[in-house]
Amino acid sequence: MPRNWLTGISMKERSLIFVGAAAFYAIFGGVYWLQFWSLIQREDTRKTVCLASKALDIFAKNG
Prior knowledge:
This protein is an all-alpha fold. It has a domain of 36 residues. The longest helix has 29 residues. It is elongated.
């Protein structure tokens, strides 16, 4: 990650920003793979996995 946009921010706050960025990366990465995985599921479970993925995505974006 480029650090030039964090110029003037204390090291403690920088570490919190990086922890938050890593958490968002993990959440959105999980949503992506869950949606991809739903494509290879059986037809009867595909809808459930897709709905759960969409719910997680909405929660991740809006809190």
